[in-house]
Amino acid sequence: MPIIVNLDVVMAQRKMSLTELSERVGITMANLSILKSGKAKAMRFTTLEKICEVLSCQPSDILQYVPE
């Protein structure tokens, strides 16, 4: 897939655990794990907005387009 999810990288830079991010964003750890692994087929803008708010980052820090 040409969209790479760098959520784990940003979380590591912020020293934030999956559990903490899940609690602060308000989504389940299972759904967050799916996002983090890059296996998600879609993401709501409200979820992306909350993740960016909690991690103090831009959407481009989390999502990267790599042409095939």
User: Total helix count?
Assistant: 5
Structural class call reads: mainly alpha
The radius of gyration is 11 Å
Mean pLDDT: 94
| Global morphology | globular
The fraction of residues in strands falls at 5-15%
CATH class: Mainly Alpha
Order of helices and strands: EHHHHHE
Helix content: 55-70%
Major β-sheet profile: 2 strands, antiparallel
**Strand segment tally:** 2
Strand order of the main beta sheet, please? 1-2
Distance between the termini: 8 Å
Summarize the topology.
Layout: E1 3-5, H1 7-13, H2 18-25, H3 29-37, H4 45-55, H5 59-62, E2 63-65
Antiparallel strand pairs: 1-2
Structural overview:
With 68 residues, the protein is mainly alpha-helical. The chain has a single domain (3-65), classed as 434 Repressor (Amino-terminal Domain), CATH 1.10.260.40. Helices cover 57% and strands 9% of the residues. It is globular and about 35 Å long. The mean pLDDT is 94.
Summary, kept brief:
The protein is mostly helical and 68 residues long.
Please tag this protein with its features.
68 residues, 434 Repressor (Amino-terminal Domain)
